[in-house]
């Protein structure tokens, strides 16, 4: 393919350098990369093997090309065509001279060895009759050596003269490129500041302020006003406009006295009376209470006392833009970042934080109706984002083979295991078993891009949840996270996109929409709305709330088609009972702002524990040094670990190339506690737990664990 074709990805492409190549049977091939999987079928086993060999060779070539590009990362922008033509001629001449030097060097080595042999023979001579011939041979060798040496000296002289004549031109070109780079950086920074000033000016416009006030005082009611007053964004915050979509549905609270209608699909959260909703199912009734208060005393077994604070974050000043400006358009996992921008947790531990509100799944087990159970699953899927609202720091990228366990089987009824199963692209496999009746597993690949003013983090891969008694199997995917104000202003995080949760047994569905933040929007910030429907498409519940505070559920008693919007779409009007609070965020611990805004669970994740695997994130030295406030030592240790991992990767790649040249199969890295299988539900190649970890922990047999720290 041409460079123009390679610059654009078309439908049906896959990056071989990071792909997994597996065979299902004698004729089928499975290519998987993150959340994308292709199934190929050959006509025969011989043809399949030819394709596998060709794909492996192409993958090895792609890896070499990627490594060459990564080694050259941070290059200057391409020079113009005229600059290229000016450089091409001298470089070609220099290359030719360099080849002449190499040839002369080889000849000198050859003739020098011959001369040495002749001299040795001359020393061993005893008969004067033979000395004349030998001395003549020595003279011939010396003459050849002298001629070759003179040729090399002349070639060196020509090389130096040519390099000297062009050195000034190279210096001018290099200086020009540097000036262009500096001007571009200054322009980008100035544009960002102007954009920020314009948005602050728009916020202070009288017409806009009065219009916003009138909206929140009429349709939104006290809910919108309270949210606006509680906003903690300062004037330095930079906001990005999003196109405001018209709500797909309108909810009306069924109240025989008032029949209040809300102007958005928030279901009148603060106006409803939960006691008016009398369901026979006691699960919703128990959910009406605060989840935090309930969780503190619902377990009868005594809990182990765990730490409630960590050392305060040091006040180190470092300019993020000074590092990120050279990384625009690159994969975040390939950007070397100091620990100053990290938090003392790994990505595996951040993934485990999804279980902070595990009691939602414990309640879902008790639901007799699959649609009611879907409401709790939907609330659980939203709750995993509540810890991110203030967490602008980057977690540590796990090393290949790194693991993290969270054993709360006796205290909370579940045990969790994560493993980093791929480094490029970074992928982690996660498995959770609960003795209270559910199992959760996921294989998540993190794709991230820095776009100059913001950073997009896109988790790829599906999350699976299965309930043991009913067999209900739920699958959903995460939304995109965006970190704004990279250049100037206060960093802030937003979640945007849609989540479709599907029960593959009953075919129930829940469509959740995460509305991106916009200052000009009438919606509450960080709003999430959705509808739970059965296999026939009939809506049963309306979900509403925010991903950083709470989620509510309203039972639909009647639905009808409303008026047509200006965009030509017909809205659905749902008449609902008063909402029930399914989930509410736990309050942050005291002094959380000085402890990376960690939640109560996050504070315990890196707490040292005995008997864990030697690959556990708690034992990672750079992360431990950072948590202790020794950031300079942590940066040195982080570089050591990364270089150690690169050396292992280079050795593995060399083994792969050697195996391919010999016609042998090379499996590559094999996860320790997970195995790659084609998922029967999604058809994707994922890593699932194969067992053995907890048994190895009981025996304290960690012989299979590599030395990664």
TrEMBL record:
Q: Name the PROSITE patterns for this protein.
A: OSBP, PH_DOMAIN
User: Main localization of the protein?
Assistant: membrane
Coiled coil feature spans: 174-201
| Location of the region described as Disordered in the Swiss-Prot/TrEMBL record | 64-89, 204-237, 254-309
Domain of life of the organism in this record?
Answer: Eukaryota
Q: What GO biological process terms does the UniProt entry carry, in alphabetical order?
A: lipid transport
| Recorded GO MF terms | cholesterol binding
Q: From the Swiss-Prot or TrEMBL record, give the protein name.
A: Oxysterol-binding protein
**To which species is this protein native?**
Dicrurus megarhynchus
Instruction: Name the gene behind this protein.
Output: Osbp2
């Amino acid at each position: 393919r041409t460079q123009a074709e390679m610059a654009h990805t078309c439908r049906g492409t896959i990056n071989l350098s990071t792909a997994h190549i597996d065979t299902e049977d004698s004729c089928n091939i499975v290519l998987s990369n993150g959340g994308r999987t292709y199934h190929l079928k050959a006509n025969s086993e011989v043809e399949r093997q030819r394709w596998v060999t060709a794909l492996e060779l192409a993958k090895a070539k792609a890896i070499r090309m990627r490594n060459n590009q990564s080694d050259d990362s941070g290059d200057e922008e391409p020079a113009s065509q005229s600059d290229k033509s000016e450089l091409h001629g001298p470089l070609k001449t220099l290359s030719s001279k360099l080849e002449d030097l190499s040839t002369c060097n080889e000849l000198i080595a050859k003739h020098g060895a011959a001369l040495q042999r002749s001299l040795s023979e001359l020393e061993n001579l005893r008969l004067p009759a033979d000395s004349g011939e030998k001395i003549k041979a020595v003279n011939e060798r010396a003459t050849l050596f002298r001629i070759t040496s003179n040729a090399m000296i002349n070639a060196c002289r020509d090389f130096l003269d040519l390099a000297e004549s062009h050195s000034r031109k190279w210096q001018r070109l290099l200086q020009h490129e540097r000036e262009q780079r500096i001007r571009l950086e200054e322009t980008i920074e100035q544009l960002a500041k102007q954009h920020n000033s314009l948005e602050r000016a728009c916020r202070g416009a009288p017409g806009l302020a009065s219009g916003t006030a009138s909206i929140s005082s009429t349709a939104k009611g006290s809910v919108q006003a309270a949210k606006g007053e509680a906003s903690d964004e300062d004037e330095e915050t930079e906001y990005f406009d999003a196109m405001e979509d018209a709500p797909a549905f309108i909810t009306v609270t069924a109240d025989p006295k008032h029949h209040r209608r809300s102007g958005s699909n928030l279901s009148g959260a603060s106006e409803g009376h939960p006691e008016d909703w009398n369901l026979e199912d006691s699960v919703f009734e128990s959910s009406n209470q605060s989840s935090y208060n309930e969780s503190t005393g619902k377990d009868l077994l005594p809990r182990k006392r765990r730490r409630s604070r960590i050392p305060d974050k040091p006040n180190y000043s470092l300019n993020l833009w000074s590092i990120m400006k050279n990384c625009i358009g690159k994969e975040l996992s390939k950007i070397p970042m100091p620990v100053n921008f990290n938090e003392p947790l790994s990505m595996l531990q951040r993934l485990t934080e999804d279980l902070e509100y595990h009691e939602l799944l414990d309640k879902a087990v008790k639901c007799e109706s699959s649609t009611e159970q879907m409401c709790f699953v939907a609330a659980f899927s939203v709750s995993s984002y509540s810890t991110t609202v203030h967490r602008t720091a980057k977690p540590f990228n796990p090393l290949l083979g790194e693991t993290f366990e969270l054993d709360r089987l006796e205290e909370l009824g579940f045990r969790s295991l994560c493993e980093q199963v791929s480094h490029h692209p970074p992928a982690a496999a996660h498995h959770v078993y609960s003795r209270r009746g559910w199992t959760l597993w996921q294989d998540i690949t993190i794709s991230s891009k820095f776009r100059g003013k913001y950073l997009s983090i896109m988790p790829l891969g599906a999350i699976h949840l299965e309930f043991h008694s009913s067999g209900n199997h739920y699958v959903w995917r995460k939304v995109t996270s965006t970190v704004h104000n990279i250049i100037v202003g206060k960093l802030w995080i937003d979640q945007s996109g849609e989540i479709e949760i599907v029960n593959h047994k009953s075919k129930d569905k829940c469509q959740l929409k995460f509305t991106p933040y916009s200052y000009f929007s009438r919606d509450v910030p960080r709003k999430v709305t959705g509808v739970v429907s059965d296999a026939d498409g009939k809506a049963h519940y309306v979900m509403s709330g925010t991903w950083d505070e709470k989620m509510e559920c309203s039972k639909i008693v009647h639905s009808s088609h409303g008026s047509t919007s200006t965009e030509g779409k017909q809205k659905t009007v749902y008449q609902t009972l008063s909402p029930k609070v399914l989930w509410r965020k736990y309050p942050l611990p005291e002094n959380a702002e000085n402890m990376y805004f960690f939640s109560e669970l996050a504070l315990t994740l890196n707490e040292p524990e005995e008997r864990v695997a030697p690959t556990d994130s708690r034992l990672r030295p750079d992360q431990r040094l950072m948590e202790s406030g020794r950031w300079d030592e942590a940066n040195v240790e982080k570089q050591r670990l990364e270089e150690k991992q690169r050396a292992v990767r280079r050795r593995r790649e060399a083994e792969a190339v050697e195996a391919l040249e010999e016609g042998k199969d090379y499996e590559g890295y094999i996860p320790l506690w997970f195995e790659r299988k084609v998922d029967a539900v999604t058809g994707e190649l994922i890593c699932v737990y194969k067992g053995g970890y907890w048994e190895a922990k009981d025996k304290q047999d960690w012989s299979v664990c590599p030395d990664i720290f």
